[in-house]
């Protein structure tokens, strides 16, 4: 793969649940007005960047961020970019869960009716492979990925050779952009969690 290839990770804009800290996966809720404004700022930031491929999660909040940012026209929906399935923890915040499970961490929990973290890592590996294939077909270049906080953190961890659980240490704000690339032939995180105001 060309050392000039980069994966640009865009986390969707703010929603009411991301604002409250509620775990949001399969629940399809819209962006807040602030989330839409930050998506416009993201679009302005990306205006002069050329992408050889664009992929988005099928969830409305990711597709809407992609649309507002001006990249939806050529975007491909990739099921692998769905957020981690939180099962019984869907819609609940960590402080709320810790009232009954004091040691709770989504990164180490057994998730009833949801996904183990390593399964999310396997999905992330598939997304990386498809993104690199798209870049290779185009002779290299930038690939945009619009998705969600945890799947993108896990994808970044897998990019640099960490286990899926390594995503725990890569905080990611709503409406942010991060860039994965190469230093010579080594996969690296080139920029991380670039936000757009408060």
Structure commentary:
The protein has 198 residues and is α/β, with parallel strands linked by helices. The protein has a single domain, classed as Rossmann fold. Helices cover 32% and strands 19% of the residues. It contains 6 helices and 6 strands, in the order βααβαβααβαββ. It has helices at residues 16-20, 33-46, 60-68, 94-97, 117-137, 149-159, and strands at residues 6-11, 51-56, 75-77, 142-147, 177-183, 186-194. Strands 3-2-4-1-5-6 form a 6-stranded mixed sheet. Strand 5 and strand 6 form a beta hairpin. The longest helix is centred in the middle third of the chain and has 21 residues, at 117-137. The chain is globular, with a radius of gyration of 16 Å. The protein starts with 5 loop residues before the first strand and ends with a strand. The mean pLDDT is 95. This is Putative phosphoglycerate mutase family protein. InterPro entries: His_Pase_superF_clade-1, His_PPase_superfam, PGM_Phosphatase. Substrate binds at residue 61.
Classify the helix fraction into a percent range.
25-40%
- CATH level 4 superfamily: Phosphoglycerate mutase-like
Most strands sheet: 6 strands, mixed
- Which class do the helix and strand fractions yield? alpha/beta
| Count of extended strands | 6
Strand order of the largest sheet: 3-2-4-1-5-6
What's the domain count? Answer: 1
CATH topology, what is it called?
Rossmann fold
Radius of gyration based on Cα positions: 16 Å
Instruction: Assign an overall shape.
Output: globular
Mean pLDDT across residues? 95
Pfam families: His_Phos_1
GO molecular function, one term: protein histidine phosphatase activity
Organism: Granulicella sibirica
Protein name: Putative phosphoglycerate mutase family protein
